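User: quick one, fold this
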Amino acid sequence: MQQFIDAAPGIRLWTEQRGVPGAPPLLLIMGAQATGVGWPDALVDALAAHHRVIRYDHRDTGRSTWPFEEHPYRIADLAEDVIAVLDGLGIERAHIVGMSLGGMLAQMVLADHPDRVLSATLIGTSALSTTPYTRPDGSTVPVDELPGIAPEVLELWARPVEDHGPAAELRRRIEHWRVLAGDQLPFDTAFFHALEERVIEHTGHHRTGTAHGRAEHDGMLRTEQLARNQVPTLVVAAPAEPVFPPPHPQHLAQCVNGAHVVEIPGMGHALPPAVLGPLADAILTHTGATGLTGAPGATDVTTGADTTTA
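Assistant:
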């Protein structure tokens, strides 16, 4: 079911719901400049077997309002959109799953609106905290000395995005996914080609927005609030992650009180078919449901125990 939510004056957000209406709600929060349909259908359907799954388009993506040029906003406003979606759909509390920028928005929701969150899953993101990282040997590393974004990603992001038509834009996006996916799994060109074709069809044009990269990032730190967190929180670690490489997931789990880490073998900063089964099982285990994918299990690297449920 598709529905538009009025998040703020002049701001309408596209939403889609799947699954049993009475099941526990689970809200998917995508990354920067990414539409809700960037969550692969196979993952959404696996989660929807146990949850009322909601995905939505951020401002300046997909079918939602594109207001930034006339009315600039802050990243913090995107976090408040998460609450607006819940309010608009009449949901008091939900499990939330955030990827990349979506993982940062989820942290802000955890900090500012913990009463609205049943559980949180954070994927491919970094901590909104100034707390240093503590290595296994007990030594500490300041946040600004943690590993940065891989050079090949930075080089790709530095290129100007020019409009040479839909076919050229598709090629650019597929190359982008190739770099983000990392080097531990074979790259599935056909999958990402189909994904981006659907994104373009969903959006109605092939233009790429830049609003989220230009939005004000002030006021995002939540160091003290995350340290007091009481919401069950899962951090997904991706060994091939080129944007927030290890030990960012471990650092994040140290910053969010009570969080634990599960590693998805071969995963990078993308959601190819090979990781969808293990990722669905990790999320469903965390939310208290039962994974049905039959996929090889993720590994809980907090305890070293295997968390396969299928």
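User: anything notable?
Assistant: DSSP finds ten helices and eleven strands in the chain.
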